[in-house]
Amino acid sequence: MSRIIMGVQVQKRNNVVIPDVQPLLTEYGCYIKTRIGLHEASDDQKTCSEEGLLVLELVKDAGDTAEELAKRLGEIGGVTVKTMEF
After folding, report:
1. What is the rounded CA–CA span in Å between residue 85 and residue 5?
2. What does each C-alpha distance from 82 to 2, 19, 42, 44, 45 come to in angstroms?
3. DSSP collapsed to 3 states, 41-79
4. Which residues contact 2 (CB under 8 A, 6 or more apart)?
5. Is the pLDDT of residue 50 over 70?
């Protein structure tokens, strides 16, 4: 059984995540076991970084579905996807 970890780097996250990335994560939600979102926050708590990183752990043996999700995410401007398989 393989386990896939997917890193999704997002540029201009406020413009891309809600309209483009979030619907895909919802569509593939049954295949996402763990989701962690990381971004830089300022000390004044008034602004957040426009760059973000999502770390997704997919269910075991997600194989073709993981490839499909990575491809669809990678087609979004400002999104870079990398995967690790164990």
Report:
1. 6
2. 16, 21, 27, 32, 30
3. ECCCCCCEEEEEEEEEEECCCCHHHHHHHHHHHHCCCCE
4. 60, 61, 63, 85, 86
5. yes
Indicate whether 45 pLDDT > 80.
Answer: no
DSSP 28: T
The third-level CATH classification (topology) of the domain covering 4-85 is Alpha-Beta Plaits (3.30.70)
Phi first, then psi, for residue 58 (nearest 5°) are -95, 160
pLDDT of residue 43: 67
Spell out the domain ranges in the chain. Answer: 4-85
Answer whether 19's CB lies under 8 Å from 79's CB: no
| Global pTM value | 0.87
